[in-house]
Specification:
The protein is of the alpha/beta class. The chain contains six helices and 15 strands. Strands 5-6-2-3-4-7-8-9 form an eight-stranded mixed β-sheet. A five-stranded mixed β-sheet has the order 10-11-12-13-14, with helices on one face. The protein has a two-stranded antiparallel sheet with strand order 1-15. Bound molecules: zinc ion. The site of zinc ion has 5 residues, from loops.
Length: 284
């Protein structure tokens, strides 16, 4: 239970129309990218003040926890890994409650139901190192890890502090790694899946821009924002590693959204994810 408490504790310390298809198609048959959405539960009882809001200013205070697999004809990219390691589930269908986090579904069975094993995953990327995103990161250590240098340096530094659980990602230390120095990566070389450097929330936060054939462009935003209200007010959380860089990164992504007529999927936003099909269905 140390994990639960430390996530909640770290937060406190810091304050101070989808086009979808049925499962069963071979991923290899896909001629264009697909996004699978995996559910991992919720974060409840957060203090809006952590995010510089009052309760009445937010439509919804709670978070959903999600992870994504992007299947491309040339390979796959897993983006984030859930808030709670699958090993914490008892296997009897009961949720795992760890502090403010309630996990309702393990990630790897959802991946399997969509037709993938962790060992099939070509690339793995985290939006950032916070523990509500790294839950099952160790399961993807056989993939090529795409990470910003500043993020990796922090994760494997002497004594990483804050909302971080190194045990959940230790195996990445020896993974094949593509280290980016505050730069973007066109993952499959055709411009359809691009990891974009968006530092600020953490030193090497990243988002993923995906161009889908039917739905259009989507940005998987990680924690570039937590609440939609951050977009309209310009407020940033109290626990950003560099709030000014967060604002620069947000401005860059807002321009991308406008230029590409793209959707923004805020990873913790309940309304966004309630409207999306979940794996084994997908968005393409
Ligand atoms: Zn988060």
């Amino acid at each position: 239970m140390a994990r639960n408490l430390s996530f909640a504790g770290a937060l406190v310390a810091a304050a101070l129309a989808a086009s979808c298809s049925d499962a069963g198609d071979s991923p290899a048959a896909s001629a264009s990218p697909r996004i699978y959405v995996f559910e991992n539960g919720t974060i409840n009882g957060l203090d809006p003040a952590l995010f510089n809001f009052r309760r009445e200013e937010l439509a919804q205070v709670d978070f959903v926890n999600t992870a994504y697999l992007i299947a491309h004809p040339r390979g796959t990219l897993m983006f984030d890994a859930g808030a709670v390691p699958d090993s914490h589930f008892k296997g009897d269908g009961t949720p795992v409650v760890e502090g403010v986090v309630t996990a309702t579904k393990p990630i790897l069975p959802q991946l399997k139901e969509a037709g993938f094993e962790p060992g099939d995953v070509t690339y793995f990327a985290l939006s950032h190192y916070h523990s509500d995103h790294t839950g099952n990161a160790n399961a993807f250590a056989s993939a090529t890890w795409i990470v910003q240098k500043a993020e990796r340096d922090y994760m494997f530094g002497d004594s990483p502090q804050g909302i971080i659980q190194p045990a959940t990602y230790d195996a990445l230390r020896n993974a094949n790694t593509k280290i980016l120095d505050n730069e973007d990566l066109d993952v499959f070389g055709d411009g359809s899946v691009v990891v974009m450097a968006t530092p600020g929330h953490t030193p090497g936060h990243q988002v993923v821009a995906v161009k889908l054939a039917k739905r259009g462009a989507v940005v998987l935003a990680g924690d570039l924002y937590h609440y939609p209200e951050e977009r309209t007010t310009g407020r940033v959380p109290t626990f950003e590693s560099d709030p000014e860089r967060s604002k620069v990164s947000r401005a860059r992504i807002e321009k991308y959204l406008e230029d590409n007529d793209a959707e923004l999927w805020i990873e913790h936003d309940i309304a966004t994810h309630a409207a999306l099909p979940k794996a084994p269905q997908y968005v393409d």
